[in-house]
Amino acid sequence: MHNLKLKTKDKIDIAVNYYQNGHEEVVIVAPGWCMTKDSDAFCQISEMFAGYFDVISFDFRGHGKSGGMYTFSAKELMDMDSVVRFARKNKYKKIYLAGFSLGAAVAIIYASKSIFIDKVIAVSAPTDFDKIENQMWKKEAWGETFKKFELERFASIRPYPVPLKKTKPIDVVGKIKVPTLFVAGEKDPTVHTWHTKELYEKATCKKAYKEYPNGCHAEDLFLHFKEDFSKLCLDWLFD
Questions:
Q1: How many CB atoms lie within 10 A of CB 148?
Q2: 1 contacts 70 by C-beta, under 8 angstroms
Q3: Cα–Cα distance for residue pair 12/99, rounded to 1 Å
Q4: In what order do the strands lie in the sheet with 54-58?
Q5: Structure pTM?
Q6: What one-character-per-residue DSSP string does the chain give?
């Protein structure tokens, strides 16, 4: 695995973990808010995909080893674009996006605009940032956060102090032309299940929807249902 730095169009350094295994297809793994490529959950997710594909996992701006400040999907499209440009430079035959939470929101927005994406996996994606429930007082939320606590990761988070205008995934999901898998957790306290259902219903591409009974949020679905979640994602990409 190689550690790299890429540069966005607005000159932000984006830190990348590049699992280069000689495959012709690559999965770009996009974590959500407060998660990084080096967090235990995303190391496991990347290694799962790396058994079958090359993988590029990255820190969005304002996270981990990347520069800048996090804008909650307003400017993160440029971060993903820097990674996709890197994948294209390496001449992959197919480029897949696997986004989680706000990383899934960015993946949806990016796929709605780009002709270079071949498939999308969107896990716990919100329809609209301003409608995210984020009920952190619920045991389903704080309990999972406590179990995943990593001091270095939390200390690295740098949010932008001023709200910026954001594209709503629900407004653009209908423009995606490539196969898209929508995944949700029944008891997600952060992005309630209705978000994923509405995105799925509005999508006009080849699509599939999976809801995990008693499932929580984003990477927690992988952690709690590892074998089934992995098979779901791999089957979708190999189909």
A1: 17
A2: no
A3: 20
A4: 2-7, 13-19, 54-58, 25-30, 94-100, 119-123, 180-185, 207-212
A5: 0.94
A6: -EEEEEE-TTS-EEEEEEE--S-SEEEEEE--TT--TTSHHHHHHHHHHHTTSEEEEEPPTTSTT--S-B-TTSSHHHHHHHHHHHHHHTT-SEEEEEEETHHHHHHHHHHHH-SS--EEEEES--S-GGG----TTSHHHHHHHHHT--HHHHHT--B-SS------HHHHGGG--S-EEEEEETT-SSS-HHHHHHHHHH--SSEEEEEETT--STHHHHHHSHHHHHHHHHHHHH-
Q: Is 136 exposed, middle or buried (0-12, 13-18, 19+ CB in 10 A)?
A: exposed
For 218: left if phi > 0, alpha if psi spans -120 to 50, otherwise beta; the answer is left
pLDDT for 24-39, tens place per residue? 999 999 999 999 999 9
pLDDT for 139: 56
Query: With respect to CATH, is domain 2-238 assigned 3.40.50.1820?
Result: yes
Distance CA 59, CA 169 (A): 21
CA distances from 3 to 16, 126, 129 (A): 6, 30, 31
| Bridge partner residues of 13 (DSSP) | 7
Whole-number average pLDDT of the chain: 94
Nearest to 175 by CA among 131, 112, 123, 105: 112
Is residue 29 within 8 Å of 42, Cβ to Cβ? yes
CA 128 to the chain's CA centroid: 15
